Structures are given as C-alpha cells and as structure tokens.
Amino acid sequence: MFALAIGSLRRRAGAFTASFLALFLGSTIIMAFASMLDTAASGGATGEAQSTLVIMANVVGGWGLLLVVFAVTSTLTLSVRQRASEIALLKSVGATPAQLARMIVGEAAALAVAAALLAIVPGMVAGRGVLGLLHDTGQVPPEIGHSFGPVALSMGIGITTVSATAAALITARRATRAGVADSMRSAAVDTGRLSRKRIVFAVLFLLLALDEAVITVTLMDGKGSDVMATSGQADILAAIGLALLAPAIMRRATALLGRPLRAFGAAGELAAATMRRRTGALASAVTPVILFVGTAVGTLYLQATENAAMEAAGLAKTAEQKSIETLNFVVIGMVVLFTAIMLVNTLVAATAHRRREFGQTRLAGATPRQVLASVALESAVLTVTGVACGTVASVFTIVPFGLARRDSAVPAGDAWTYLAVVALAAALTGATTWAATRRAIRVPAVEAALR
C-alpha cells in the first residue's frame, strides 16, 4: 500500500498542497522556538537571559505547537474528505479498511518527513529572528549567539511526523470504517457530523478555558501582572474548543441564515443549497478564522488592559513585565501569520476542489457572475460565524483579566483594535475565496464538469 500512497501523491499533488504547507509551517515554527533551548544550553546564557530563552521556547513554542497540531489535523481531515469518492471507489473494488488506512497514513508520513526536512533552513532563519527580537528589547545580551542543534531538529522532525501520523490515523479510521454505500453518500453530501470523541475534546477544551477564567477572577485577583499567567491562555483553549464544534456551528448558522440568503435571488438560493451539502468543508474553512480572531483579540486587549493598569498605578515596567509583553506580541505575530496563511491555504484548497461543482452548476444554467456571487455569500457567512465564535473565545481572557486587574469587565483599548482584526479576517476570507473561485471558473464548464 506504500506504492499506492506514492501513486496517490503523484496523481493528486494539488489536493495535498494544503496539508504539506500546514506541516511545513508547523515544523518551521516548532524548530524556530525549540532552537531557543539549544541557544540557552550552548550559547552561554545565564540568569535572566537563560530564563527568557526557556520561557520563550516553552510558552510561545508550546502554544504554537498546540495550534500547529490542530491545524495539521484540520487540513489532513479536509484532504481526506475531498477524496471521499476515491476512497469509496477503492472500497468497491476490494480495498480493505486496513489497506486504505495504511495508504492514508503513508501519505501523511511522506508529506511530514518532506515538509520537516525542507523546514530546517527556514526554522534556522526564524529562530535567528526571534533571538534578534530578544536582543533588540535587551532581554538577552547581544553576545549570545543563535544555536540550532539537536533539540530543534528532533522536536521539529519528530513532532511533525508524529502529529501528522496521529492525525492521519484518526482521519483514516473515520474514513474507512463506513461501508461502500455510506461512503458514496458521504462523498455526495458532506454533512460533517460530529463524532463522540470530537464532542468530548471540545467540551474538555471549553471546560479548561472556563477553569482558567474562574481561577483568574478568584485565586489570581489582586496578584498584579501575574494574572496574565492564567488568563492569557484561556482564549486559545476556548478557540480550539469552539473550532472542534465547527461542523455543528456551521449547520446551525446555515439553518439560521438560509432564509436571509435567499433574499439575494438566484445567488442566495445557490449559496444556501450548497452550504447545506458542504458543512464539513465549511467547518474546516471557518476553523482558522476562529483561531485568528479569538487569539488576536484576546491577547491584544489583554496587553492593552495590562498597560492601562500599570499606567494608572504609576509604575514602570520591570524586565520581567517587558519580557511578558514581548511574549504576547510574539504570540500575536505568530498566530496572525500562521492562521492567516492557513486561512488562505485552506480556502484555496477547498475552492479549487469545487471546480467540477462549479462546472456542473454553470451547465445547469448559472452564470459565472452568479457562481461568484454565491461563493461571496458563503464567504460572508464564514466570516460572520468565525468572527462571532472568535469573539466569544476572546471573552474567556478579556473579561476575567479585566475584573482581576482593573475591577472592570470592559477592557482597555479602543474599538479600532477589534475592528482591525475583524477587517483583516474578512479581507483574507473574501479576497482569497473570490480569487480562487474566479480562477476555477475560467476553465470551460464542460471541461470542468468532466474532471
């Protein structure tokens, strides 16, 4: 089945691009921050400098790792979901579930190893950039040079391969245990039903976020800047929990917005009908929006509230507080970059896969303008849903931290911060979907429908 996996990779190179890019970016981020541990061990760092390097690797790298693994799982799931008809056909000609599972896992392992090896040089460059930021802020002496050694390599290659293999095993089990008839129906109608395990993990992440929020407003109340240690991670936990529930959320959003969409005429009718059939794919597309909005809004307002509290107390920031502020902005930068690329990557992959669907729709009488308009409406629903869920996730950080730090549930900072995040999410979603759809419909309808 390994030969079958290689053959599948060659035939469907475009379909695996999203998964490969997720693995490549994830491995780059992991190596970059893991190299801080190599630098701390062999660069001669001591005291505060060593502590800063270790914190940067463990805190930022740890949360980055969690986001990376989640994104890799999401993109691999989307890739396998797009191949539902191919998997159903293989079942119909005698392929066993074990053979199909080995094929899917073999593909993921091959992609992971290739992505991790190609990420070594970018990981070195990114690691130097992180250390340069610490040099510029005076948290690490300039004489401490960057070191990229066994920790970065082993974590980058090992974690990328293990996470991809684990995600492929989970996805393969779900894709291969259904019968041929059920697989054919799933290929035609992608309802994206929630599994019991997915619900359990979603509830677990949301409970962890709630626990962090409760600890913030009770045990950490009045502890000054130390409150950030518990509240800062609540938005990420909540965003992951809501993203795990994305299929159910998108089904509900589609049902609620179906009637308003029909007010837009033929394009609205087409959008509503398509969204009912593609809940699973829409859930994969909305996931990076939720992560982006939840983490960016939560962290930006957390730092704004902290700065306001320090200013009101007339206190100057200590070296540790400057380090925490740097960490927060590095987290924001990492999340913005990673989720923005994953958002574009996922939307391009999902839209390109619909080329045949677009061709059939045009043959049925829809004009290219109506196809573009229907996809624009889908994009609007994705944006609204993702922003709403991300905003809810950010509340798990913003409100508890404000209560503990300033006795106010209203965060410091102005509305323009929130509007900027929302505008960026909307621009990325809308522009990417429009460009990918426009490219897809350039292919003649008959040719696209036969692919």
Automatic annotation (TrEMBL):
UniProt entry keywords in alphabetical sequence: Cell membrane, Membrane, Transmembrane, Transmembrane helix
Any one Gene Ontology molecular-function term assigned to this protein's record: transmembrane transporter activity
Protein topology in the membrane: Multi-pass membrane protein
Cross-referenced Pfam families: FtsX (PF02687)
Cellular-component GO terms for this entry: plasma membrane
Annotated ABC3 transporter permease C-terminal domain residues: 62-176, 330-443
Subcellular location(s) of the protein: Cell membrane
InterPro entries: ABC3_permease_C, Macrolide_Exporter_MacB
TM annotation in the entry: 53-79, 100-127, 147-170, 199-220, 232-250, 281-302, 329-350, 371-403, 415-436
Family: Belongs to the ABC-4 integral membrane protein family.
PANTHER family linked: ABC TRANSPORTER PERMEASE YTRF, MEMBRANE COMPONENT OF TRANSPORTER-RELATED
The protein's name: Putative ABC transport system permease protein
Organism: Actinomadura luteofluorescens
